[in-house]
Structures are given as structure tokens and as C-alpha cells.
TrEMBL record:
Designated name of the protein: Bifunctional chorismate mutase/prephenate dehydratase
Family annotation (InterPro entries): ACT-like_dom_sf (IPR045865), ACT_dom (IPR002912), Chor_mutase/pphenate_deHydtase (IPR008242), Chorismate_II_sf (IPR036263), CM_dom_sf (IPR036979), CM_II_prokaryot (IPR002701), G/b/e-P-prot_chorismate_mutase (IPR010957), Preph_deHydtase (IPR001086)
An annotated GO cellular component: cytoplasm
Species whose genome carries this gene: Allopseudospirillum japonicum
Gene3D superfamilies assigned to the protein according to its UniProt record, in alphabetical order: 3.30.70.260, Chorismate mutase, Periplasmic binding protein-like II
Site (Essential for prephenate dehydratase activity) location in chain: T261
Gene Ontology BP annotations: chorismate metabolic process; L-phenylalanine biosynthetic process
Length: 361
């Protein structure tokens, strides 16, 4: 009787050969696409198309029959697409660093590991890098499901001409980790970003109530600091733990089990509709009674789904405010065009920040 395990291994080897051949065939098609684009568009060639990638990934999940999950299958295809795109032209992506942050993880999740990722120390520097053309795209955090909006990101849009080209929603897992010089029962100081300390406050109160909590610029910075310190721990994610070779004392210590952060992809291009899109706008209203009601009324009237409304102080004067609004739909949709026209008639200023594919993964 033949060995059933050997038979399965031979079948897997055959399938691997077929998969490898098909991936290379796809890569060759990508190269041909680049040649056709370059011939017709010249120096203005746009190789990365966010709406096209979103459509491909949605179809991947729609036709998936398992046993791999839709998300896992889409991640595999994301890496294939990333490698193929790099054959056309490598994409350079600036992200809020340092290395090992959740923003880097979001950049890799969206663009794949074949993208060239560059770490920058501040959100406004990410904006400047993309505006100057030194990077094709930037990745910045915009809101956390527990701690709310990142004001610095919203404020950066006030003076920037960049467009929002996409979004990434990342499930955030926080781990308590130590270096080789620290014993878990001797932890007296815990480093992390202020928002991460807040997201883990109840767990820390229960397990390390006496430990000093020290806020630093990023979770990755916290992980780097404890590499050589004594009696210190850090709260950070998997990438930081791997980067600095730290031991996890406790995993998934965030207080809210559905803790997530939303990141924006910023660039210089306007993105066509992908059939499942969001639009972000910035609106300045005249300071008068009922201004907010007047601003939101067109969305109710045309039954447009609002997903976020935030208020920030305006730089035009004291006690003046601008509204950041996200809603479902694309500026190419006739209904959305009517809403924007109605809002523009009521507002003192309207700026479209971008229309982009709704986060796929």
C-alpha cells in the first residue's frame, strides 16, 4: 500500500509548481501593463491604482471558498500584487516612525512588503515628504476606536493640497514586553506612547499598579529603550517585539477587545470610483445659530451615510471652527455631487480632501 502522506506531499509539490508558474505569468503581464502605460502616458504614468487594487481584493474575497479565510486569502494576493507592482516601478511610502510602529504595520498591510517604506519622525514631515515628491504616498494615523481622533493629522490637512487616496483599519494588539536584563517580577517602570498607556489603563491598574508609567514618542521607541534597561517594560506591538528581540510578558492587554486604529493613505492623485468608496471633506461654517444643522441637513435629505464628524479650531480667528466629515460614496456619484453642491452653498469654505476606496481588509 502506498504511503498516503507521501502521496499528499507529491500533490502539494505539483500544485506548488503550478502556482509558481501562474505567479510568474501574472508578473509578466504586469510588466507588459507597465510598457503599455509608459508608451501611452509617458512621464505622467500612474502605476499604482488604488481603486483597481481594491476591486481585485474584493473579488478575491467574494470568490474565496476556503478553507483559508477571506482576509488571509486577500493578504496573500496583496503580497503578489505588491511584488508585481515593484516590477513596474517600486512604490516609495513615507510613514510615521520609527520602525516597528503600528503605522509601519499599516503601510505594509496596504502596500505589501515590496514597497520601499521610509520612516519619518513626525506627521507633518510625512506630509512634506509626499508634497515634495520624495515619496509617492504617506501613511498617517487619523483615529483610534478607544482614544478618538489624532488632531495633528487633521490639522495637517488644513494647509496641505494632498489627497486622501485610501484607508487602512488595523486591529491593535498591545503586549507587555521586557528585555533580557529584566525579570517580570521586578518591573518598576513601563514605557509606551501616551495613547497606548491609556488603552491599557485598566489592565495596568490591575497587574502593575505600583509601576511608573512613562509616555514616550512611540511604542517602538519604548521597545528600543528597554532593550538595555533594568527593571523596565514596554507596551508595544508584534513588530517592535520582533525588531528588538524582546520577550512578551503578557499579550493582548488592551482594555477594549475591538481596539482598532484607522490610518489614511495620502498622495497627489485623485482616485476614481471603486464602487465601494468614502469621501472626506473639510468645511468652514459661518458663526451663526443653526450652522451645524444647516451643514448636516443635505446629508439627511439625500440619505448619505455619515461615518465621522470632527471639529477643530480654525486658524482664521478665535472661536471659529472647521468640520472634518467622512461619508459613504464617491464624488463621481451624482447624489454625492448634489450633496456637495448644497453644502458649498451653506458653507463659507469647502475643501474635498479625497474620495477613495473603503478599507478592504
Amino acid at each position: 500500500m502506498s504511503d498516503p502522506l507521501q502521496s499528499l506531499r507529491e500533490r502539494i509539490d505539483t500544485l506548488d509548481q503550478q502556482i509558481q508558474a501562474l505567479i510568474n505569468e501574472r508578473a509578466q503581464c504586469a510588466q507588459e501593463v507597465a510598457q503599455v502605460k509608459t508608451a501611452s502616458e509617458g512621464e505622467q504614468t500612474v502605476f499604482y491604482r488604488p481603486e483597481r487594487e481594491a476591486q481585485v481584493l474584493r473579488r478575491v474575497m467574494e470568490r474565496n471558498t476556503g478553507p483559508l479565510s477571506n482576509e488571509e486569502m486577500a493578504r496573500l494576493f496583496r503580497e503578489i500584487m505588491s511584488a508585481c507592482l515593484a516590477l513596474e516601478r517600486p512604490i516609495k511610502v513615507a510613514f510615521l516612525g520609527p520602525e516597528g510602529t503600528f503605522t509601519q504595520e499599516a503601510a505594509l498591510k496596504h502596500f505589501g512588503h515590496s514597497a520601499v517604506c521610509v520612516s519619518l519622525p513626525a506627521i507633518d514631515e510625512v506630509f512634506r515628504e509626499v508634497e515634495a515628491g520624495a515619496a509617492d504616498y504617506g501613511v498617517v494615523p487619523v483615529e483610534n476606536s478607544t482614544e478618538g481622533v489624532i488632531n495633528h493629522t487633521l490639522d495637517s490637512f488644513i494647509d496641505s493640497g494632498l489627497h486622501i487616496c485610501g484607508e487602512v483599519v488595523l486591529r491593535i494588539h498591545h503586549h507587555l514586553m521586557i528585555g533580557e536584563n529584566t525579570r517580570r517580577d521586578k518591573i518598576s517602570r513601563i514605557y509606551s506612547h501616551a495613547s497606548s498607556l491609556a488603552q491599557c489603563r485598566k489592565w495596568l491598574d490591575a497587574h502593575y499598579p505600583q509601576a511608573e508609567r512613562v509616555a514616550v514618542n512611540s511604542n517602538a521607541e519604548a521597545a528600543r529603550l528597554i532593550k538595555s534597561e533594568w527593571h523596565s517594560a514596554a507596551i508595544a506591538g508584534d513588530m517592535a517585539a520582533d525588531l528588538y528581540q524582546l520577550q512578551k510578558v503578557a499579550e493582548k492587554i488592551e482594555d477594549c477587545p475591538d481596539n482598532s486604529t484607522r490610518f489614511l493613505i495620502i498622495g497627489n492623485q485623485e482616485v476614481p470610483a471603486s464602487q465601494d468608496d468614502k469621501t472626506s471633506i473639510m468645511v468652514s461654517m459661518r458663526n451663526q445659530p443653526g450652522a451645524l444643522h444647516d451643514l448636516l441637513e443635505p446629508f439627511r435629505q439625500h440619505q448619505v451615510d455619515l461615518t465621522r464628524v470632527e471639529t477643530r479650531p480654525s486658524r482664521s480667528g478665535a472661536w471659529s471652527y472647521v468640520f472634518f466629515i467622512d461619508f459613504r460614496g464617491h464624488t463621481q456619484d451624482s447624489k454625492i455631487q448634489q450633496v456637495l453642491q448644497d453644502v458649498a452653498e451653506r458653507a463659507s469654505d469647502l475643501k474635498i480632501l479625497g474620495a477613495y476606496p473603503k478599507g478592504v481588509l
